[in-house]
Amino acid sequence: MNIFNPQRLPGICFIFVVAALSSITLAHASNKWRIHFSDSAHSDGIITFEIAPEGDAAFQVSVEIADRARENQVARIVADALAERLPANRFHVAVDDGEDVLVKKRFGADNFELRLLSSTVESVRIDLNRE
Question: What is the mean pLDDT of residues 1-14?
Answer without folding.
Answer: 54
